[in-house]
Amino acid sequence: EVQLVESGGGLVQSGGSLRLSCAGSGSGFTFEDYTIGWYRQAPGKEREGLSCISTSEGLTYYDDSVKGRFTTSSDSAKNTVYLQMNSLTPEDTADYYCAAVPTDRLGGQLWKCVYTLRYLEVWGRGTRVTVRG
Q1: For the chain, what percentages of helix, strand and coil (3-state, to nearest 5) are there?
Q2: Pairing mode, strands 70-75 and 80-85
Q3: In what order do the strands lie in the sheet containing 80-85?
Q4: What is the average pLDDT across 65-75?
C-alpha cells in the first residue's frame, strides 16, 4: 500500500514562507515512477491544484495562482517532494495535500496532474497552513 504523508504546515505571518514536505512510502512504491502534485482546499471552497513534478525527470508545472511564489522540488534519496511557499498571504490559508499519479498515465501532459484530480491515485491526509494578515 502506497502512503503519502505531508508535513510542514503551521501558522505564519503575511509575507512569510513555509516549506511543506510530502514523503512517500509503501510496498511496491517506486518514487521515480510517480508524478506528485500539491493541492489545497480552503474552507468552503473546492480543492484546487497548485503544482506537479515528475520525479524521474524533474519537470514541473504550476498553476498561475502560485507561479513565481511557490516552488516544488523532489529528493529521490528521501522519497520526498517539497513545496516551498514564499510571499504568503491570508488567501493562501488552506489545508494542503499532496497526491501521486503514475507518470505514464499522464501521456507527457503534466497539466493533467494539476487540473484533472481524478488521475490522482494516492492522497495524503493534508497539513494545515494558516497565514495571518
Answers
A1: 15, 50, 35
A2: antiparallel
A3: 3-7, 18-25, 80-85, 70-75
A4: 97
Distance CA 125, CA 22 (A): 10
Q: For position 30, what pLDDT does the model report?
A: 92
What pLDDT is stored for residue 76 in this prediction?
94
Selection from 18, 24, 35, 25 nearest residue 127 by Cα = 18
User: What does 65-127 look like in DSSP terms, one character per residue?
Assistant: TTBTTEEEEEETTTTEEEEEE-S--GGG-EEEEEEEEEGGGGTT-THHHHH-GGG--EE---E
Give the phi and the psi of residue 41 in degrees, each rounded to 5. -140, 115
The three cell numbers locating residue 45: 471552497
